[in-house]
């Protein structure tokens, strides 16, 4: 098999066409750099979509994987294992939570959170309390339940009848939420900074009010921290900087630093609704994933890394402001920590993808968040030199787009 020619054309032959990947096929990574089949070097400002929180091949993760790989990979939840219990203890000690449920992805963590919220409400308040309120432009995963809760119909339409009793209001629109929430509401689900929806920060007063409304109506506040969690915004979890504590929090992406793992965190009282047999995951909490995640968590959850995120945000903002002063294509740079978005101005409406493609030609990997935002979600430990080199490449890409 190893002598098979692996090309981009092979994707079109053998893969379901729901992705349209770039021509480039990376084969090796180190820190914030990647090398393709031809040995060309790229700077990675995409981070696997906010997953590679410690860059590529971080020694702490590599050694955890190798060490655990020689011991135990999988057991099933008929048994438990040391890495899962250690990671759960660390998550509980570092957050509001008292109980943890492990799975393999953000969508699965959100699926568990939504099922738990419904079950808790039905068990404690009766069968009528099932309404879930979420936000337009929100994103919570691609299972049928999570994609229905996500506030982008383009992802959920066309698959037949959707799970019922899910309503959406605009993010940061307190009046709309007040008009909709009632004692029938079982949960309000929100990202503490909208990612896919365009890197939209919440207004502090809005978050406070959401928490108060949930309390008034015995609804659970669910924070989807799949993209914002594990240091991405400069706090271990974004809720910590907002002065509001959710009832349920979901985590994935950066949690494993590149190895698939998800977690749902909650309180003992709420967790009680998931009694034996209520929910489960075959691979969830497997020792291999948990060992890698423990190493990632230990590395990120330090003052130096978390403070370093805010420092790196300043490098990006300064560099992007300088580029924009020259080329005048962005209305603003928004976001927090190392989840940043360059928002197109009037002249470049809908053209974020052009910037992404131009960046790729300059050997820089970036992301978009909708048609109007170029998104950066790099390694939390990216070096100053890598940021400077990446921004120099981005400037050349911007010049190409602006000068046509």
UniProtKB/TrEMBL annotation:
Q: In which pathway does it act?
A: Amino-acid biosynthesis; L-arginine biosynthesis; N(2)-acetyl-L-ornithine from L-glutamate: step 4/4
Q: Which reaction does it catalyse?
A: N(2)-acetyl-L-ornithine + 2-oxoglutarate = N-acetyl-L-glutamate 5-semialdehyde + L-glutamate
Q: Which UniProt keywords apply?
A: Amino-acid biosynthesis, Aminotransferase, Arginine biosynthesis, Cytoplasm, Pyridoxal phosphate, Transferase
- Keyword Cell wall biogenesis/degradation (UniProt): no
Q: What is its main location?
A: cytoplasm
Q: Which GO terms describe its biological process?
A: L-arginine biosynthetic process
GO MF, one term, reads: identical protein binding
- The record lists N(2)-acetyl-L-ornithine as bound by 142, 281
Its localization reads:
Cytoplasm
**Residues carrying N6-(pyridoxal phosphate)lysine:** 253
Please indicate if the UniProt record lists Cytoplasm as a keyword. yes
Q: What PANTHER family does this protein's entry cite?
A: AMINOTRANSFERASE CLASS III (PTHR11986), SUCCINYLORNITHINE TRANSAMINASE (PTHR11986:SF113)
Known partners and oligomeric status:
Homodimer.
The name under which this protein is listed is: Acetylornithine aminotransferase
As recorded in Swiss-Prot or TrEMBL, the protein's gene is named argD
């Amino acid at each position: 098999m190893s002598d098979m020619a692996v090309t981009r054309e092979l994707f079109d032959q053998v893969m379901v066409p729901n992705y349209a990947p770039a021509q480039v096929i990376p084969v090796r990574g180190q820190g914030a750099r990647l090398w393709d089949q031809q040995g060309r070097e790229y700077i990675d400002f995409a981070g696997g979509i906010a997953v590679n929180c410690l860059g590529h091949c971080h020694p702490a993760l590599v050694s955890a994987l190798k060490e655990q790989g020689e011991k135990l990979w999988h057991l099933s939840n008929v048994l438990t294992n040391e890495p899962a219990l250690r990671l759960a203890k660390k998550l509980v000690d570092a957050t509001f939570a008292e109980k943890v449920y492990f799975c393999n992805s953000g969508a699965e963590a959100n699926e568990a959170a939504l099922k738990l919220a419904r079950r808790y409400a039905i068990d404690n308040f009766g069968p009528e309390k099932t309404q879930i309120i979420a936000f337009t432009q929100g994103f919570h995963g691609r299972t049928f339940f999570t994609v229905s809760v996500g506030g982008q119909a383009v992802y959920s339409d066309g698959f037949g009848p959707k799970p019922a009793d899910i309503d959406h209001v605009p993010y940061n629109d307190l009046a709309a939420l007040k008009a909709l929430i009632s004692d029938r509401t079982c949960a309000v689900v929100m990202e503490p900074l909208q990612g896919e929806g365009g890197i939209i920060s919440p207004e502090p007063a809005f978050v406070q009010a959401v928490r108060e409304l949930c309390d008034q109506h015995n609804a659970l506040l669910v924070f989807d921290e799949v993209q914002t969690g594990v240091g991405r915004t400069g706090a271990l979890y974004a809720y910590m900087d907002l002065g509001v504590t959710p009832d349920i929090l979901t985590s994935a992406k950066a949690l494993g630093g590149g190895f698939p793992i998800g977690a749902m965190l909650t309180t003992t009282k709420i967790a009680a609704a998931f009694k034996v047999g209520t929910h489960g995951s075959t691979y969830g909490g497997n020792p291999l994933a948990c060992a890698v995640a423990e190493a990632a968590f230990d590395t990120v959850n330090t003052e130096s890394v978390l403070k370093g995120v805010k420092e790196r945000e300043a490098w990006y903002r300064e560099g992007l402001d300088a580029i924009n002063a020259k080329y005048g294509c962005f209305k603003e740079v928004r976001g927090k920590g190392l989840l940043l978005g360059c928002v197109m101005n009037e002249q470049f409406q809908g053209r974020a993808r052009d910037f992404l493609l131009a960046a790729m030609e300059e050997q820089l990997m970036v992301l978009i968040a909708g048609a109007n935002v170029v998104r950066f979600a790099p390694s939390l430990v990216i070096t100053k030199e890598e940021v400077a080199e990446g921004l120099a490449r981005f400037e050349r890409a911007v010049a190409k787009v602006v000068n046509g």
